C-alpha cells in the first residue's frame, strides 16, 4: 500500500510526529545495534580490497530482504519509519553545539560537534565549529530525514530501511584513508547511488524554504566543486537558502580536505544552526504536502 500517496502521507506524518515527540530511543535503538554489528563484521572481514568490502555490505544488508514478504500494516510501517528517521536527534545535537558557543564555551562546543562529524575537532576555531555543525545538519537533513521519507514512498519500509542502513555503512566506512579507501568503496558507492535523487529533491526543498534564487544559483555553481556528489547540492542549496557562507579546510583521519566555500552572504553564525534545523523540518513538511497533492491528482484523474 505504500505506493498510495495518501497512505504514504499518513504514515510519514505519524512517523514525523513520533520523532518530534520522542526522538531516538535512548537505549536499544536498531541503528545503534546495526552499527555494532557492522563493526563486528568489519573486524572479521577487513582486508584492503573492494571484494571484501562488497562481501561485508552483502552480509549486512541481505537479512533485510525477507521484510519484502511481510504484509503492509500501517502502524508497523509507522514504527519502522520512526526508527529509521532521526530529525529531532539531529537538531538536538546541532543546537547543543550552538548553545555551547552562545555560552562562550569553545571547548565544550568542540566536544559536542565531535559527536556529529567525523573530522578532527580538538583545534577548531569558533567559525570552524559553526561551519562543521551547519554542514552536518544540512547534509544529514537529507540522510537522516528526507532521503528516508523518499525511499519509503518509493519502495516501502524495506526501501527506507535499506537506505538508512547503507547510509550508516557509508558513515562508518566511507573514508578516503588507508583503512577504508578500498574496503569502504562499495558502501560509499551504494550510498551515492541511493542518494542521487533524494539529495537533489532535498536541495530543492531547502531552496524553496528560504532564499530560493540564491540557493538555486549556489547549487548550480558551487555543488560541482564539492567532493561529495550528493552532499554538494544539499549543502550548497542549504547555505544559499539561509543566505550564509560556510566551508574551508577540514582534517580527517589520515587526510585533509579543502572544502569549497558554499553559499552567499555573511559568514555563518551560531544562531544559524537553529535556522538550518528549521529548514530540515520544513523540507519534511514539503514532502508530506507533495504526497497530499499527488493523492489529490490521483483522486481527480
TrEMBL record:
Pathway: Cofactor biosynthesis; adenosylcobalamin biosynthesis. Signal peptide: none annotated. It is found in: Cell membrane. The keyword Oxidoreductase does not apply. It is a multi-pass membrane protein. InterPro entries: Cobalamin_biosynth_CobD/CbiB. It holds the Pfam family CobD_Cbib. Coiled coil: none annotated. The chain crosses the membrane at residues 53-76, 144-163, 279-300. It comes from the Bacteria. Keywords: Cell membrane, Cobalamin biosynthesis, Membrane, Transmembrane, Transmembrane helix. HAMAP family: CobD_CbiB. Belongs to the CobD/CbiB family. NCBIfam families: cobal_cbiB. Converts cobyric acid to cobinamide by the addition of aminopropanol on the F carboxylic group. This is Cobalamin biosynthesis protein CobD. It comes from Shewanella schlegeliana.
Amino acid at each position: 500500500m505504500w505506493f498510495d500517496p495518501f497512505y504514504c502521507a499518513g504514515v510519514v506524518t505519524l512517523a514525523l510526529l513520533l520523532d518530534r515527540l520522542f526522538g531516538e530511543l535512548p537505549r536499544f535503538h536498531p541503528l545503534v545495534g546495526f552499527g555494532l554489528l557492522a563493526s563486528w563484521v568489519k573486524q572479521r572481514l577487513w582486508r584492503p580490497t573492494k571484494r571484501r568490502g562488497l562481501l561485508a555490505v552483502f552480509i549486512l544488508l541481505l537479512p533485510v530482504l525477507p521484510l519484502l514478504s511481510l504484509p503492509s500494516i500501517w502502524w508497523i510501517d509507522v514504527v519502522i519509519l520512526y526508527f529509521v528517521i532521526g530529525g529531532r536527534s539531529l537538531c538536538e545535537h546541532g543546537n547543543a553545539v550552538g548553545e555551547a558557543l552562545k555560552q562562550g564555551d569553545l571547548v565544550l562546543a568542540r566536544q559536542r560537534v565531535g559527536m556529529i562529524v567525523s573530522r578532527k575537532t580538538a583545534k577548531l576555531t569558533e567559525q570552524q565549529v559553526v561551519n562543521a555543525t551547519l554542514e552536518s545538519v544540512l547534509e544529514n537533513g537529507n540522510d537522516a530525514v528526507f532521503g528516508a521519507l523518499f525511499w519509503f514512498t518509493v519502495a516501502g519500509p524495506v526501501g527506507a530501511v535499506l537506505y538508512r542502513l547503507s547510509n550508516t555503512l557509508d558513515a562508518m566506512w566511507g573514508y578516503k584513508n588507508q583503512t577504508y579507501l578500498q574496503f569502504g568503496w562499495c558502501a560509499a558507492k551504494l550510498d551515492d547511488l541511493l542518494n542521487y535523487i533524494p539529495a537533489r529533491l532535498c536541495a530543492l526543498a531547502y531552496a524553496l524554504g528560504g532564499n530560493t534564487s540564491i540557493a538555486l544559483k549556489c547549487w548550480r555553481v558551487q555543488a560541482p566543486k564539492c567532493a561529495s556528489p550528493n552532499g554538494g547540492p544539499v549543502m550548497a542549496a542549504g547555505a544559499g537558502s539561509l543566505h550564509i557562507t560556510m566551508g574551508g579546510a577540514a582534517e580527517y583521519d589520515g587526510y585533509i580536505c579543502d572544502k569549497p566555500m558554499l553559499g552567499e552572504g555573511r559568514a555563518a553564525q551560531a544562531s544559524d544552526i537553529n535556522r538550518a534545523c528549521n529548514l530540515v523540518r520544513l523540507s519534511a513538511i514539503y514532502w508530506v504536502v507533495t504526497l497530499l497533492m499527488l493523492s489529490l491528482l490521483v483522486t481527480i484523474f
